Each structure stands twice: as C-alpha cells, then as structure tokens.
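Feature request disguised as a bug report, sorry. It would help if multi-protein outputs had a clear separator. Right now it looks like this:
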Amino acid sequence: MHKVIFDTDPGVDDAMALLFLHNHPEIDLIGITTVFGNAAIETTTRNALFLKREWGIAAPVARGEGKTYNPMRNPTDWPVMIHGHDGLGNIDVPETIDLPIDPRPAHRFIIETVRANPGEVTLIAVGRMSNLAYALKEDPEIAGLVKQVIIMGGAFDVPGNITPAAEANIHGDPEAADVVMTAPWKVIVVGLDVTMKTVMTRKRLAELTARNGRHLKLLSDISQFYIDFYGRHVKDEGMVVHDSCACIYLVAPDLFTTRPGAIRVVAGGIADGQTIQKPDARSFPPGNWDGLPSQHACIGIDAAKVMALLDETLVR
C-alpha cells in the first residue's frame, strides 16, 4: 500500500484526482492538505471537506497557510473562468460543511505525519508548492524521511499555460517550487509535457457515470464547466486530467518516460515560474544547477493506458 498525503487546491481536476486516490486499492490516503490556487484557501479547504463528505473519505483535512513562500508576492486573481466561482464548476457547494478540520496547519500536519511514518509517505502535490516549502523550512530533516514527492506542475520542452514560459502551479509560488525541487528528496515532476496528452471527453465521462452513478454523477456535474473551458484548447470535447496524471504515476510509473537532472525554477522577470532542467546527460560550465539532487521530469506518456487506468479506478 502506498501511503499518500494529497496536497491540493480543489479545483475540478483535483476532484477527479482525489476520487482516483480514494478508489485505488493500492493507495492508503492518510491526509489531505489544502493550498490556495484554483480558489482562495477558505474555498479550497471547504471544497476538500465537501468532497470528503460526499465520497466518504476517511482521511483528515488540514488547511494550509494561504500565502506564498515569499510574503512579498500577492496571489493573482482566482481562475473563476476555469473552475467557477465556487472552485468546483459552479455546482453551488454549501457555504459550510459540517465536518471537523485537523487543528494543525498543513505544513505541520505534513511534518508530523511523515515523522510518524518514516520512509513510507509519498507527497502528491497538485497545486502551489507552498505547504511543502513551509514544511521544509520548519523541519529540513523530513526530506530524508519522505519516500518521494510527485508534483503536478511545470513545463520543460513545451510552453507554459499561464505564460509562454510557466505552468500555473509553479507560477503561483515559484520560490516555493524552487525550494521543493532543490531539496534532497526524490521528486518526480509530472508537467504539461505529458498531461496535455490526456483528455477525458464529455462522452467518456458520461459512459463512466452510467457505470457508477453515485460518485461519478457528482464528478460529472463538477466537470462540465471545466470541459466547456477546455473546448477552446483540446480537439475533443473534454478536459485535460492534469492532476490525475500525477496520481497515476504513483501506481504505474512504467507508463511514463522520465529524464533525470537537477531542476531550478525562475523567480522574477518575464520567465517567472519557468522550470528548467539540467539533464544529467549534458555537460555545462559551472552554474546554479551544480551540486543539486537529480530529479525526474516526465517527458513521455502512454496516454491511452493512463486513461484506461483512470477509467477503471474511477468506476470502482
């Protein structure tokens, strides 16, 4: 069993990824930590509690700080045109959810859970890297106690999606992302190079919903607004399943091709948030990538098999 803390900003594709983690028989979801991004921290935390309640998820929810690693940065406007005003596709999520929240801030929940399960916990982060960076700042030694970190974010050999240089999760807190990428733990970055090849069509989602009405009906309702947005960006009428790809990597890494090498994140200027890898196979003059851990950037994917595994798991 893979023990997982899911660091997330629900978010439509986050909801699909959460249901995948909840349903997969080899995954033990031991915590959900919330971060700002697809909506404000109050909204993403409320949404995590809502999904926990509706899908009967046992994992506790811990709220993040709701601020960037560099306090001088101000969050941009929330992407309501993508995820809706409620963060979940404008399905009118209740204002309050009658479930308790873990009393610890997200970064402290991560630290204490990792220390209680040394060498066993995978962190899957599909929003800003703020919580992970705060955890490292408070307790750097956890880097040696985490099994691995799987990130949905970044763009290496393809353009970004928030600027030509940057992917949105990284762009939202680049200083935090650089801390996470350069820490001495194992990081796998599942970015736009591979996620843009995975599309859940409206038709496919309807067929899945017919096979598992209760859970998938809610997911389908949440996803319709997002699919409308993505109609301008993908060939088929569907949505890109960014966050689910990071979760699928955990149980099926053989469906991905990775490239090893140190990774840095640009902070500032017109390339703010750009992820740059120095491949291990290439030599360069001395520079800012030297002496850093070799991390893994996903550059290839078997999209058909990834989507088949997603289908199979969502309808369990």
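(second protein starts here, but nothing in the output says so)
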Amino acid sequence: MQAAIMYGPNDIRVEDIEKPKCPTNGLILKVLSIGLCGSDIRNMTTDSCKGKYPHIFGHEIVGIVDEIDINTPKYKVGDKLYIYPEDHCLKCDECRAGHSENCLNPGDYIARQGGFADFVVVTNEQINRDAVFKLPENINLDNATLSEPLSSVYACQENINITLGDSVVIIGAGPIGCFHAQMAKIRGAKCVIMVEINDKRLEMAKQFGVDYTINSLKEDPIAKIKKLTNNKGADKVISANPSSNAQAQSIFMAKAGGIVVFFGGVPKGTLVSLDTNYIHYNNLWIYGHFGANSMQVQKAFELAISKNFPAEKFITHVLPLKDINKGIELTKSGEAIKVVLHPNLN
C-alpha cells in the first residue's frame, strides 16, 4: 500500500510499504477520506516522535471495511465507518462520571499507525469501546471526516452553554475558529466577533456567520469589542489559537461574569501572565478545554453528516494522498480552511 511516512520534521514521503495484517477480532479499513488536522501538521513539522521514526500520522479517518476477523460480528466487509481516534475505556472514574475526555486509560492513537495510508488497522479494543461509527447510506464521506475536529468544538460550546442571544468572541480564524463561529450561530448566538491577524482568513471566516471581524495587528481588539458590545464585553470568549498573548488579552474581552475558554494549546513550557485581580473583581469563569466525552463525540458525528451543518463550506481542498505536502502548505498559508486527502488514488 501507499503511505505518507514521516522520517523527521518536515520530511514526509509517500512510499510503498507492506499492507498491515488483519488483527485478531479486529478489521482492516480501506481509507477513502481523511482530514488533514492542524495537530497532524504540528506533529509532522516538529520532532513530535522524539527521533522515533519512521511514523505514519493521520486521525480523521473514514473508510470501508476491507478485511475482517471472523470473530468480529458487529461489522462486515463493505461497511463504511468513521473512526474516532481516542477510544475511551468507559470504566475508569472519569469515564463513569461522564468525562471520558479525561479517560485514564485511553487508546494511544499517536503511537499506532495513523490513517495517512491506503489501509489502517482497527483493533478489537477500538471496536468494543466508543471509537467506531457506522455511516448511513448515501453520506458524503468527506463530510464525515469533519466529525473529529467538530467534536471538540461541539463539546466546548455545550459545556459553556452558548445559547440564544449570546455575544461570542473567537480569537483565531483557522479551521477550528471557523468551526466555532458556525457552531455558535447554530446554537443561537446573536453576535459572533472574529479576531485574527490574517486578513485573508478574516474574509473567509465571514461565510460561517461571523458578524464582525477584527485584525488585531491593525486595531485594538479589546477596545473594538467593548464598542461592539455597548461597552460591556462579550458573554463568551474562546481563544482558539496557540498564542499565549491571545490568552492574556482574552480576559479583557469578556463582560463581568462572562466566560473565557483557553481552547488552543500554547507551546509546551510557555507560561501566560494573567491579571488575576481583573479575573477576581469581574467574576470571570476561566475554562480549559480539550476533547469531548463519548456522547458529545456521537452528537458531533451526527451533526457533521446532517443537512444542518454546511460541511461543504469548510472543505476547501480535496487532494490525493501523494499531495499531502501541498495540503500542509495550503493550510499553513491560510489559503485552505480544511484539506481532505483521498488515499487509494493513483
């Protein structure tokens, strides 16, 4: 089979390798469509594996069952499946409390072979946990790849209860920021304000329900947000980018009693200076967000493949797997919102 193999930072080569063998009580999925995630790009452009190469990434996987162990009754050859990357054990204290996003014994999707390949293994453990979803007939497979990035956005906004009439600030107009804008509008937000430093991305974000855009290199975002919200600040502020400066600024964009979410992770070891007096006297709630629980994963999957979600707006580029490096550059430059790759194409 062909696979996009990482040999080191920024060294991704599409090569022929041996197809994996069907695991006991598991299956082999023929990958038909896979999203190119920002975390994939970060991993493939840094020494993410600490020198342990070669490695294959890719975790927004949709495909068709190609082989199956005789003792795997849930699925059959020809079934089309979406694979959520992090299978939760559903037995630990965190899972049982409804917070499977904090599972103490999750499957390690980074360590195993990813989906930037013609075929990928789906283990019995993944099947018996909460990671495998069968696609209905006549569903666009590219749309289904959005289920994974949408799941964390869905979970975040459900957790902080973005609701009818809210004013919402989103910092960062990358793919995740655009997901947040669209989701906020679906949930009834009255006003969505996008803050970003790239004019091209700000322009693209308007199609996802953004009411106002602010280039924070050209004007003071805090002053502009105050002006747009009758000098109050926003009900909810989501910092969806890897900037510590954005996190430090975000608290001043929220109204008294508002909610601020640190959604995007900053580089490891980075410390953020926060005005805790301001947080204290303005009764701000600060949340860190990562992942989604099992039910939120399922709900996001159902939304992504439904007519209520405009998936086609997000998928700006569809490329064969051999063009993965082009997809990386399109995403990094801001020209692409979401790149979807098609393995098994010559």
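Even a blank line would do. Unrelated, but nice: The mean pLDDT is 96.
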